[in-house]
What we know:
The complex is a heterodimer. By secondary structure, chain A is of the alpha/beta class. In chain A, helix 1 packs across helix 3 and helix 3 crosses helix 6. The longest helix of chain A is centred in the last third of the chain and has 63 residues. Chain A is elongated and about 115 Å long. The termini of chain A are far apart. By secondary structure, chain B is mainly alpha-helical. Chain B folds into two domains: about 160 residues, no CATH class; about 150 residues, no CATH class. Helix content of chain B is about 60%, strand content about 0%. Chain B contains 17 helices and two strands. The radius of gyration of chain B is 21 Å and the shape is globular. Chains A and B meet through strand 15, strand 16, helix 8 and helix 11 of A and helix 1 of B.
Amino acid sequence: MPMRNIKTWHFNGGLHLEEFKEIxxxxxxxxxxxxxxxxxxxxxxxxxxxxxxxxxxxxxxxGQQIARATGxxxxxxxxxSSGTVVDINDYHVPHPSxxxxxxxxxxxxxxxQWIKREPVNYQAxxxxxxxxxxREAGIAGLGGAGFPSFIKxxxxxxxxxxxxxxxxxxxxxxxxCDDMLMRERPHDIIAGLKIIRHALNASRVLIGIEDNxxxxxxxxxxxxxxxxxxxxVAIPSLYPAGGExxxxxxxxxxxxxxxxxxxxxxxxxxxxxxxxxxxxxxxIGEPLISRYVTVTGSGITRPRNLDVRFxxxxxxxxxxxxxxxxxxxxxxxxxxxxxxxxxxxDAPIIKTTNCILANKDALPEQPAxxxxxxxxxxxxxxxxxxxxxxxxxxxxREFDRIQDYNLxxxxxxxxxxxxxxxxxxxxxYYRFAKTTIWQQERDKKKSDxxxxxxxxxxxxxxxxxxERAERHRxxxxxxxxxxxxxxxxxxxxxxxxxxxxxxxxxxxxxxxKTEKKTWPKNIDSLTPEQLKLIKEVDExxxxxxxxxxxxxxxxxxxxTVEK
Amino acid sequence: MPLITxxxxxxxxxxxxxxxxxxxxxxxxxxxxxxxxxxxxGVIVNMTIAITTALVFEAIMxxxxxxxxxxxLTDGSAIVTAVLLALAIPSLAPWWVVFIGxxxxxxxxxxxxxGLGYNPFNPAMLGYALLLISFPREMTVWVLPHGLHxxxxxxxxxxxxxxxxxxxxxxxMDALTSATPLDTVKTQIGLKQTLxxxxxxxxxxVLAGKGxxxxxxxxxxxxxxxxxxxxxxxxxxxALLGGMFAIALVFYLVDSDAYPSPVFHWFSGxxxxxxxxxxxxxxxxxxxxxxxxxxxxxxxILTYIIRSWGGYPDGIAFAVLLMNMAAPTIDHxxxxxxxxxxxxxxx
Lengths: 563, 347
């Protein structure tokens, strides 16, 4: 199909950042060596953590599922090489908290032996079956967020998808893994694209690539020359054009509604690397066990992209790329704008690791000055928020006011923090406010439930009390009726009947007790003295009871019985 | 070696508060030279007193408030306040006028509200308003601009007048000072003179008052540079000058004998200094773009009203302070439409 000129749109703000991309595009991508030990976190995606289905000592093959998905928003984990499971325990994972999380550890046997792979012809499958294959292959969005891809291929029964977007913008500085993938494997991308398109039944496809990647644009244009209604669009390089909502706006002019999802406006967006993963899962039968990772930064002497197995410790990659772990004083996972620093260098590569930025001369953290309300942040905000107002209320912990300023529309791109002349870590404040509000909502839900429970209890107690009062009242009435009846008729009948009833009840009780007495008692091993004592006690009890019965019989006032 | 953890971004940020303040000061330079050229050594003496006072009081207040003194003193904001105030004070005003105004601006206008970033009012204009209300005589006597008097006012003479409050014997103060052009226009119109008659006085030049028109022109140049460097956005200056122009044009068209032209207003008093350097103080101004337009236009219109019918010769200071008060409310009602929200959704 001839190249068409596709109109592009703009979003507010954005930044022209220095790119630092050419550093890591000098060498072709090659597979990273198999590490001696793989550390595979059970949680490498957005959603529920996977559940191990192997045990320590099990032999596993490359591509074998070792943990299964739990719940809908969840994905399985696969062994990325063959070997032996040696531990299932908490290890350092790449997470901003620096906390440890459950991982399956495999000692590799360097044979790298695959499980049996079963390629299928996607055209023979319906969307639901394809989604299932993609889910079982453990495919999460490889752009960075890691949302399970099969969910994004299920627009729901009420929505039809008119545009499928493949995101090859890669707008953050330093990161080049998608760029290299597009240059080197354009046909794999298109093969995956066809599968996703088939599953979504999308009428047109737009591939958005920032215009600072001419090689990638050229490669994909060549690869799509025969495709019907597929356009490769060079979009202006402007951070964060690769954000999902931003690239949709740039390519279609449509805005994903706040609180909404792309399918609401007939669009679905997948990363180019995800398309390759889909292709490999369907056409080759391989689960997702590796990805392209950019290893770069001032602490790396041979910065480049590698095809890395998940579970490979980062420090091994750094060493492999000519870095010295001892010389590096900061490791960022992801890009310099939205990534986060790691506490230890031995955390593993996971599905969302697009870049390792290892620096030997980390920027000294600048002390934050007060906000001077210059508004540079608002001018840079791609969502058109007023970051300084949100900051102000976050600082003051005014979480009600903060939502008037649409905090939850913030995509945490970091543009505001970058332009802030006072060097205020704005995004941190927004994350703090968001998590606090979530926590408050959870607490509120909890306290609502507790309150309801408490109210129900009070209600129940009140009802019980009333029922009891009602019972007593009825009893009193009945007795009063009888008493008044007795006054009018023959003597002590009421009282006698009463006594009779009481006697009957007591007899029933004693009968029950005798019944109980016939139950086996633990007296077999007791001495005769002890047995004698027991007998005496029993007799005393019987006498006391007899006395009580006599007392009742001799007593004529019904009130005492009442008591 | 433990890894350094920090919050994003991990590339060097683009600017700093100090840089912003330094660029503002740099942009003031052409205007400052013009003021010195026309009003003499007194401007330098005033600025020296103002800067010293500002730094000393800023340091004392920071110390009392247990804030890091060096870090905040070097942010440059106190110097900007001092310079702006010194430029607004007549060049031969006694030293204590500058001293009181600057001290008030820093202590009451800025630090007592919480220091940098927390002052609801423009500190320099707060200081100016205090001086104008408290010392109207000292604040309205201006030296005639260079070229309009025969006296030679040397550096020592100036220092004697400002610090010693004595007029050297060889100087005739009455020949040296006069009301400002804005003031003259107002009083003469009050005396039923037509503008043509008023303008024929030697005090007036091509566009407005002699000297003043040049000073305004140079502040305009500095302001354009700030726009170019994106230290300020165009909204406030554009709206301020636009608002002033619009209201002045209406009255000028109604009666060009009694109301000076819009251009006269643009190049008189502190119009350009106000539009590019005072009203654009981000801390006390509006932050939304729509709000900035309203804020700027409000200052322009209020300035015109105060100049034309108010009790003071120039209105920039009071107009700025009035709009400072309105800024939070304007901001609240001019929030931009957030991505993914419909147009009528936000408050």
